[in-house]
Specification:
This protein is an alpha+beta fold. It contains four helices and four strands; from the N terminus they run αββαααββ. The chain has a four-stranded antiparallel beta sheet with strand order 1-2-4-3. The chain is elongated, with a radius of gyration of 16 Å.
C-alpha cells in the first residue's frame, strides 16, 4: 500500500507525462496534494515559447488584446480533449477513477491548476505523526 506522498508523487509523474506527450511540453514543476478523494495539482512553467510571446505581445499592446483569452480557451479545450488520457494516467497513479475535473490557467504567470475528484479516496497508509 502506498503512502499519500507516494500517490502524490505518482500523480505528478502522470500529469507531467500527459503534458509532455499530449500537450507537447512538460512543466518545470508540478505539485500534487491528495485531500480525501480530491487531488489538487499545480503546474508551473508549461507555456510554450509561442504562448509566452502571445502574452508578452498583448502586454505591450502589439496584438488585438485577446491573447490571454485565446490562451485560456485553447488550453481548456486541449485539456478537455485529452481528458480520457489524463484520467487513465490518474487511475494508474491512484487506483481510483476520476469523477470530476476542473482546470484553469493564469495567462499572467503560466500557472495551471487541476482539481480532480476521485470516485473514492485512494487506499493508502496513514501519515506519520507530525507530517502534514
Amino acid at each position: 500500500m502506498k503512502s499519500p506522498g507516494e500517490i502524490e508523487a505518482a500523480v505528478c509523474v502522470a500529469v507531467t507525462r500527459f503534458e509532455r506527450e499530449f500537450m507537447g511540453r512538460g512543466p518545470r514543476h508540478v505539485d500534487a496534494h491528495l485531500i480525501g478523494n480530491r487531488l489538487l495539482v499545480r503546474l508551473e512553467g508549461s507555456l510554450t515559447a509561442a504562448e509566452e510571446w502571445l502574452i508578452a505581445a498583448q502586454a505591450h499592446g502589439d496584438t488585438d488584446g485577446r491573447g490571454a483569452e485565446l490562451l485560456k480557451q485553447l488550453r481548456s479545450h486541449l485539456v478537455r480533449a485529452g481528458r480520457p488520457i489524463l484520467e487513465s494516467l490518474v487511475l494508474d497513479a491512484t487506483g481510483s477513477p476520476t469523477t470530476g475535473m476542473h482546470y484553469d490557467i493564469s495567462p499572467t504567470t503560466g500557472e495551471e491548476v487541476l482539481v480532480l475528484t476521485l470516485a473514492t479516496a485512494p487506499a493508502c497508509r496513514t501519515r506519520k505523526r507530525g507530517q502534514p
